[in-house]
């Protein structure tokens, strides 16, 4: 086992094995667009292929970058240090994807492809270095991450806080989940931390009536429109890992100008409404593409890519908002009750 100490933006990886073993420092990207903690196998102290290959094969495909990461899911103990002080530790144990191979795979098919890229673009990297990605998202399995269940989520695998055991299913005083703001993240939910969120809550849905893990939820529902066109209900992702946005909409009812495909031209309007028509929309973001002030201070993404699909393709409308939306709202994910809540930032 290894212990990972997290303080502010840095992760310190300390071997608990042989005395004098290598100590390394890592600075991970916190990513709601993926689920699973990825670190380069080459950067793990005492890693060797014989030992590593006794663990399950793993992979994650990140659709925004078209990168496929493959390796082995190896169990580690993680210790999150309080970002402001050393007053308490938060501990978790979960499999980490020790990445042995990385490739750019533009034609990756989530429905059939797995850990191997059939037609890579450029050279496939063997034993790449420098990978540090802590994925804490939910509902990511259909988007190239079929192994991205809650057991791979570091923030849903907390076993103790300040030495006090925490049940993974929660208790009357603590629920597994997190709060994300533009400035950082809070691990776990309490009644006091959720006070400002209660009026603006979107109920989530399980992927089936018999989910493999009751903490597993589909993406947040959202209604998406461009230039006051038809509002298309679909899936939303508030992605901390990127500052641009990606949208997929039906061809019918969507009129958009993209001089350089698929980039949406400046001056066009976009609306995202979180929630459903049945339960009510709890918050909405309306903005003009290319608004300089909005890009620097507001919710406007740096760039928006948009694809239109005919009904025959059967593509579910969806939007990856990017992280700028966190400038307007903090969001809280409750893995037990199944909700995503919003509060003014």
Automatic annotation (TrEMBL):
This protein's record includes keyword Signal: yes
Q: Which domain of life is it from?
A: Eukaryota
The keyword Signal belongs to this UniProt entry's keyword annotation: yes
**Signal peptide range in chain numbering:** 1-20
Q: Which UniProt keywords apply?
A: Signal
Q: What is this protein called?
A: Acid protease
